[in-house]
Structure formats: C-alpha cells, structure tokens
Amino acid sequence: MSTETKPLQPSQVGVIGAGVMGEALIAALIKFGMKASSICVSEKRAERAEELVNRYGICVCDLAENVSGSDVLLLVVKPQDMASVLEEIKGSIKAGALIITFAAGKSTSFITSILGAGHPVIRVMPNTPALVGAGMSAMSRGDGVTDAQAAFVSAFLSATGKAVEVEELLQDAVTATSGSGPAYFFAFAEHMIEGAMALGLSKDVATTLTAQTMLGAATLLDQSGKSATTLRENVTSPNGTTAAALASLNESDFAGIVAKAMKAARDRSQELA
Asked: Rounded distance, CA 136 to CA 157, Å?
C-alpha cells in the first residue's frame, strides 16, 4: 500500500458491539480525527450505551439504522456470535460499505459467504493494550478492498498503537503472537510477582519491580534496534545470577513450552474459522 494513498473519509462509522475492545476502537476513531457525532454504536445493554455516549459524545442507533447509514462497519462481536449478527444485518447494509471484522478466526471469505461479494472486508486482529494506546493490530484485506479503504483502517488502528498488514493466511499466527500474547505476559508477570513475594518482598514492591522491569525491557527491545537474543546476551554474565535463572528455565524446556502454547492458540484460532 502506498504511503501517499489518501485514506477513505467516511461520513458515518458504525460500531456493532461496545465491549472493552469496542470502546478502545471508538477512542481510536476519535483520536484519528472522526467526529464523535459521526460514530454510531449499536449495543444491547442500554446502560453501557449510555456510558459511552456520556464519555465520548457518540451516537447510539438501533442495529438496522446503524447498518443502513454507515459507510464503514466495525464488527466487534464474539466469534461464536458472528454468523447470527451477519444474518441479521445482511439485508440492510449500505451499498459498498466497508466491513471490518475483529473476531478471532473468522475469515474474510466467511464474512462474504453470508453478506455476499458486494461488500469489501478487512480482517483485523487487535489486542487489549489498545486500551492504553499501546496496542498491536494486524490487518488483512479481502477481495475488492481499495488502497483508500486500507489506508483508513491502518491510520485509525495506528491511533491504538501500531498496525501492520499481513496476508490473511498468517492471521492465525498473529492471533497466537500478539492477539493472545498479552495473556502470556500477564501470566509470566503473575508468577514473577509470586516468586518475588516468596523471596520476602511485599506485594506492592514486587508488582512495581515486575511491571517496571517488563516495561523497560519491552521499550528497550522496541527502541534499541537490537534483537531479543542480543539484549538477552548483554544482560547475562557467564556464571552470574541471570545465567543461573535462565538455566533453570531451560531445564524445564522454556522454549518448548512457549512454542507449544503458541501452537495451541494458533490451532484454536483455526478451529474458530
């Protein structure tokens, strides 16, 4: 995609599903430059819809009205709910509207098999750090998506953190890496905190030490230009404390455990298709 491509400028964006990720995407659209009044959400929970209206100044529409009036539709629903939502909206979608799906495992061909080929579809795998502007999203184009449409999606997703474009056949690998990845990180952090407490540190101090260490390490990896391997080697003195810790992890097949976990996530993503 050319960096000079002018992004699509929709007059209305419809958001279907206003959970945690739906809210993060609403915030990203506004940060990108969409007027709040041009963003319309459809949400079954009235209290949740009212909360978002008060927080962002967006509009709330019933599903049929939202679908028929939006140039872009963000489908932020659970994978198991996707088929029923598509069946409900397929007769009301505005001609030529861009469909963006955020459901794990649901391919662009799955979407078009229900909606028909007249609607371009972009598939996105985001992750939860989008809530704090540090997310990672990977997008894939379906048939008929224009450069202007892809540029719009890439630009507004970048307001949540970083965005890349990948071939759709790699989306299950993306899910296993960045989609599910925050949970791996949080699980490791949980165990580091527990380990620090077992060594005598208070929970507050253990949490601060762990969080800042992980934040610093991630920032160093992102900004130093050095590989994870090089950075690990730089902090690992022969026969030192770090070497002892890594040796213990390796005795338990640390690399194999991580690879097995990521394959399990990838396989589950494929099963959801």
From this structure: 9
Q: Tokens for 170, please give them.
A: 């790699």
Structural domains in the chain, sorted by start: 13-171 (3.40.50.720), 181-271 (1.10.3730.10)
Question: How many Å apart are CA 92 and CA 141, to the nearest integer?
Answer: 23
Q: How many CB atoms lie within 10 A of CB 66?
A: 22
Q: Which residue has the tokens 């709330």?
A: 60
CA torsion sign for 183, 29, 105, 68 is positive
Nearest-angstrom CA–CA distance, 150 and 153: 5
The residues facing 269 across adjacent strands are none
What are the tens digits of pLDDT across the range 200-254? 999 999 999 999 999 999 999 999 999 999 999 999 999 999 999 999 999 999 9
Which residues, including other chains, have CB under 8 Å from residue 73's CB and lie 6 or more apart? 13, 14, 16, 66, 67, 89, 93, 97, 98, 99, 100
